[in-house]
Amino acid sequence: AEAQLRQVQKMEAVGQLTGGIAHDFNNMLAVVVGGIDLAKRRLSGPRKEVLHHLTNAMEGATRAAALTRRLLSFARSEPLLPERVDSRELVSGMSELLDRTLGERIKVQTRLGTDAWPIFVDSHQLENAILNLAVNARDAMEGTGTLSISTENVTLAANQVGDVRAGEYLKLSVGDTGCGMTEEVRERAFEPFFTTKPVGKGTGLGLSQIFGFAHQSGGEVGIESELGKGTTVSLYLPRTEAAAPVRLHSQTAGGQSEP
Ligand code: ADP
C-alpha cells in the first residue's frame, strides 16, 4: 500500500509538472506570437520599431528553448541547481518583459532594496513565478491599475507564514490594484487546476506551481487580498546563507494569510 501511495503521489507530481510547463510555455509563445504580429504590422514603419518587436519575439523563443532544455534535463534526472540570485538584478532584468506583458495602461512600480539579502533559488523558476503573478495581476486589473514589485528582508518565527521554518527570508511581493479575491477563492487559489477564469483562459496551474517552487526552495508563499481593492502575493525565499536542502511537500490546499 505504501508503494502504491508513493506511485499515486509521483503521478500527481508528474501531472502538475507537465501542466505547469505547458502553462509557462504558453506564456512564452504568446510573447513570440505577439512580437511577430507587431513586427508584421509595422513593416512599413520605422525599421527600429520592427527590429524591437523582432528582438522581443526572439527573447520569448529563447526562454521557451531554455524551458525545454530544463524539461529534458529533468527527464534525464539532472537536478535543477539553485544558484545565488540577486533579486534586484533579476527583477530589473525583467522590466521590458513585464511592461510588454502588462500593456501600456498598467503602471509598474518597483521598490527593490539595495540591501536585499541574496537568495538561493533556480533563477528561471523565479522569473516564471514573477511572470505568472504579473499575468494574474493583469487579469485581475482588467487593463488599468498598478502592479508593484517589492522586496524586504524579514526574520520569521516558525510557522509565522504557512509552515515556514524560523529564519531569515527575502520577502518578494507582487501586488495589484485589481478585483481582489473572496475568502473562498483565496483559500483554494493554490490548488492545482482551481481557476475562476473562463475555459481557455485559465488553467489553474500558475499559483500551484508557485506554491511548489516556494516550498522546493525551502520557502513559503502567502496571499493577502481585499475584495475590490487588490491582491498581494508574497514569496518568502531563504537567505543564501540559510538555504536549506530541498524539502518535499504534499500539495495541500493552503491559502495562507499573514498574521
Ligand atoms: P489561473 O490564473 O490560470 O486561473 P492560478 O492558479 O494562477 O490559475 O490562479 C487561480 C485563481 O486565483 C484565479 O483563477 C483567480 O480566481 C485567483 N487569482 C489569482 N491571482 C489573482 C489576483 N492577482 N487577483 C485576483 N484573483 C487572483
Structure in words:
A hairpin with a 3-residue loop joins strand 6 and strand 7. The chain is globular, with a radius of gyration of 19 Å. The chain contains seven helices and seven strands; from the N terminus they run H-H-E-H-H-E-E-H-E-E-H-H-E-E. The strands form two sheets. A five-stranded mixed beta sheet has the order 2-4-5-7-6. The chain has a two-stranded antiparallel sheet with strand order 1-3. The protein has 259 residues and is α+β, with helices and mostly antiparallel strands. The protein has helices at 2-41, 47-75, 87-92, 95-102, 123-141, 183-188, 206-216, and strands at residues 83-85, 106-111, 119-121, 145-156, 167-176, 220-226, 230-238. It binds adenosine-5'-diphosphate.
Could you say which small molecules are bound to this protein? Answer: adenosine-5'-diphosphate
Residue fraction in strands: 15-25%
Structural class: alpha+beta
Order of helices and strands: HHEHHEEHEEHHEE
Cα-atom radius of gyration: 19 Å
How many strands in all? Answer: 7
Compute the number of helices: 7
Q: Can you list the strand order of the major beta sheet?
A: 2-4-5-7-6
Give the overall shape, derived from the CA principal axes: globular
Helix content: 40-55%
Biggest sheet descriptor: 5 strands, mixed
Integer average pLDDT: 85
Are there runs of 5+ residues with pLDDT below 50, and where? 246-259
First-to-last CA distance? 39 Å
